[in-house]
TrEMBL record:
Major place of residence: nucleus
InterPro entries, per database record: RNaseH-like_sf, ZnF_BED_domain_contain
Alphabetic keyword roster: Metal-binding, Nucleus, Zinc, Zinc-finger
Annotated stretches, region: Disordered: 694-713
GO molecular function: zinc ion binding
One GO CC term on file: nucleus
Localisation: Nucleus
Name of the protein this chain belongs to: BED-type domain-containing protein
Keyword Zinc-finger: yes
Domain of life, per lineage: Eukaryota
Length: 726
């Protein structure tokens, strides 16, 4: 799992930036393959009496041949090839018109039946005596080009039949020769193809070609050469890495049948790897791009800023993901995933520092390290202390805190109080379902709603009843949208799952009330039967009262849920705004952090006042605890001058904004100005290339949700429901 996540991130962040352009492979003469190592593969051209030649822009066909070639290639989805200028001189006819009609055949061991008059410039390979393990040599001659000594494979069957086009393939790769044998002669590494193999649709079947006819043989030759195994491998690796495809899926016989149906050359050329082979391909692909990324890092205009986090997979494999953020030499913002190493042992600060340091030195930017963005775990503080002592920077100044994680802690304090972590541990401990529901019920309306949605989800019959109740409601309201919905389950990891549970629960409150009420009615009828309408005590051997009855929601409970949604809505907006990659100087830019915190603090202060006189203390206490948690982390932003510097250097804000925000705290303003001045002096002496980044026109700042008073932001509650029943 770790490797695929690593590879997928690497492909998305790195490889797609340097992927060779799409397009057909470079064509090459059927008799004269270039020895240039700059070409990644060789294609064929058609050259004999049908006068099919390769030009610079497209295949040049005579009218009679074009009518055959073009439609077939369009059917097969093939593109006409283009010719590299360096190969133009190498395009020659496979049979010279001036060749002597007399065949001077010289037989040597393994070269019986070869006609050297048809192969000017070629000779017996000097390396023929070396061991040749590939099966294709049983069906081909080992020859070489005299001038270059480059080695080629010549199809024996086609040569002896004196076909119009001589099939010669570069011996450096056996894939095209193997594809030719499979398509033209129905032979693979196991010998003649079996009846099962003949059922596969080949290029001959698709185009209805007869390989014994010269013109159709020429077309087949073009089709075989148009398949580039190297390009196919590259695309396959990208698909597996980016779409998180399990490696073993490539060994599925159904997948292989699909590939064989599309093009049998894919299978016969061995382009579908095993699970271990595709893993090696991915690793090699990553290693090939590492040098390019290292070069980009070395030429960056900014320091290399780092974000990292550690976690454990479902199989309890500990991993550390490290991503870098910087401006490249053209002033473009870049984000690369550099590593996903495994962590052995505890997630201690020292252990994390070792892994982070290894990646920094591997890419060679230890002298250009900038700021670090991590969550608020204490182990990260320890990690940065070790790195600071090694690389020579102040941990406090370079340590930035993930604002999304801060908002998560604030929301959890609002929802579950000061002991949110202890509450989670109690819920995760093994206990009876009724005990777990009792624990949640202590949390008020949120806990009761949690119990209801999990109770619904545990039974297929209850889910079906929930949808039927929604359908009845939709018909009663005569709604155009008759869609019904499932409940949304919350989890103990992210607060927004609780917010989503409450929003969906509020939307379905009438159906949920009816479902629980049915349980209440059923229980009351059962009690009446067992006690004869209260005339007798309840027998000892009676069924237990369903725990869900105690979780029945009242109108007041649903009102509390609606108020929670209103309180959490700005936190959701802030999270969405800050979790993205910065675009046009916003959506995750560091200048937004202080303004977002100020905005949320004001929102929580107003909410606390609004619920000060509530009979139930849930909302008032939650708002107060959330405000205290946010204020704690707002104070910690003073440790790093980066937050304040980013805001005051923004042309739309400058010092005037912070002066108005901190009017009641002149000491904050004085210390902040001193810290920003010190940071400015650090950069002041650096040389600046004036023309490095083109000047951009000033764009007026657009109004966003952060500019709206929190009271004007309403929760996204569906109000179409029938008034809730008690």
């Amino acid at each position: 799992m770790g490797l695929k996540m690593f590879a997928r991130g690497a492909w998305r962040a790195n490889f797609q930036l340097f992927m060779p352009p799409e397009g057909p492979a470079l064509p090459i003469s059927t008799l004269d393959y270039a020895a240039s190592t700059r070409l990644s593969r060789a294609s064929t051209c058609l050259a004999h009496k049908h006068r099919v030649y390769v030009g610079h822009d497209k295949m040049s066909l005579t009218p009679d041949t074009r009518q055959t070639v073009v439609p077939v290639m369009e059917v097969l989805g093939l593109q006409s090839a283009t010719m590299d200028d360096r190969l133009e001189s190498d395009v020659t006819s496979p049979m010279s018109e001036a060749a002597d009609d007399v065949s001077s055949t010289v037989d040597h061991a393994g070269y019986e039946g070869i006609d050297w008059n048809r192969l000017p410039g070629y000779s017996i390979s000097k390396r023929r005596k070396r061991p040749r393990t590939s099966w294709i040599w049983e069906h081909g001659y080992d020859i070489e080009k005299d001038e270059s000594g480059h080695r080629f494979w010549l199809c024996k069957t086609c040569h002896k039949k004196r076909t119009a086009v001589t099939h010669i393939y570069d011996a450096a790769s056996t894939s095209q020769a193997g594809a030719h044998m499979a398509i033209a002669h129905r032979i693979n590494k196991d010998g003649p193809m079996t009846s099962q193999g003949k059922k596969q649709r080949t290029l001959l079947d698709m185009a209805q070609l007869d390989s014994h006819q010269p013109r159709e043989q020429a077309l087949l030759n073009a089709f075989v050469a148009s398949f580039n195994p190297a390009r196919f491998q590259q695309l396959l690796v990208r698909w597996v890495a980016c779409d998180n495809i399990p490696f073993h899926k490539l060994e599925s016989p159904y997948f292989r049948d699909l590939m064989a149906y599309a093009n049998s050359a894919v299978i016969e050329s061995g382009c579908i790897p095993t699970h271990s082979t595709v893993r090696e391909w991915i690793v090699r692909s990553f290693e090939r791009q590492k040098g390019v990324v290292t070069e980009l890092l070395s030429r960056s205009l900014s320091r290399i800023n780092i974000s990292f986090d550690a976690w454990s997979s479902r199989k309890f494999t500990s991993l550390l993901g490290l991503t870098v953020h910087f401006l490249d030499d053209e002033g473009k913002f870049r984000t690369f995933l550099l590593g996903l190493p495994r962590i052995e042992g505890r997630h201690s600060g020292e252990n994390l520092a070792d892994r982070v340091s290894d990646i920094i030195h591997e890419y060679g930017f230890e002298n250009r390290v900038g700021y670090f963005v991590t969550d608020n775990a204490e182990s990260n503080d320890t990690c940065l202390e070790y790195l600071g002592s090694e690389l020579g920077f102040s941990k406090q100044q370079r340590r930035l805190r993930c604002c999304g994680h801060i908002i998560n802690l604030v929301a959890r304090s609002i929802l579950f109080g000061t002991d949110a972590d202890a509450f989670e541990e109690d819920c995760q401990a093994e206990k009876e379902i009724q005990d777990d529901m009792k624990l949640w019920r202590c949390k008020g309306p949120i806990g009761k709603l949690h119990n209801i949605v999990h109770w619904v989800q545990r039974s297929g019959q209850r889910i079906e009843k929930l949808h039927k109740l929604q359908s009845i409601e939709n018909v009663a309201l005569n709604l155009d949208d008759q869609t019904t919905y499932d409940v949304v389950l919350d989890n103990a990891t992210r607060w927004n799952s609780s917010e989503a549970m409450m929003e969906r629960g509020y939307q379905l409150r009438n159906a949920l009330d009816s479902l629980v009420q049915a349980e209440v009615t059923d229980w009351m009828e059962y009690v009446a039967r067992r006690t004869q309408n209260g005339a007798k005590p309840m027998p000892k051997r009676s069924r237990k009262k369903p725990a869900i009855i105690d979780d029945r929601m009242s109108v007041e409970d649903w009102s509390v849920i609606a108020e929670y949604l209103a309180i959490l809505k700005p936190l959701k907006i802030a999270t969405k705004r800050l979790e993205g990659r910065p675009k046009e100087g916003k959506f995750g830019a560091i200048w937004e952090v202080l303004l977002t915190m100020e905005w949320l603090l004001k929102h929580l202060e107003d909410s606390k006042v609004r619920h000060e006189r509530d009979e139930e203390p849930y909302l008032r206490i939650g708002c107060n605890l959330g405000w205290m948690k946010l204020d704690q982390y707002y104070s910690l932003t003073e440790d790093s001058p980066a937050y304040l510097a980013a805001l005051v250097l923004h042309p739309a804000f400058r010092w005037s904004t912070i002066e108005s925000q901190w009017a009641d705290h002149p000491d904050w303003l004085d210390s902040g100005k001193a810290a920003v001045q010190e940071l400015w002096e650090e950069y002041r002496a650096l040389a600046v290339e004036q023309d490095t980044i083109p000047e951009q026109p000033t764009v007026p700042r657009k109004t966003t949700d952060l500019d709206l008073p929190p009271g004007e932001i309403n929760p996204s509650i569906h109000s179409r429901c029938i008034p809730a029943k008690n």
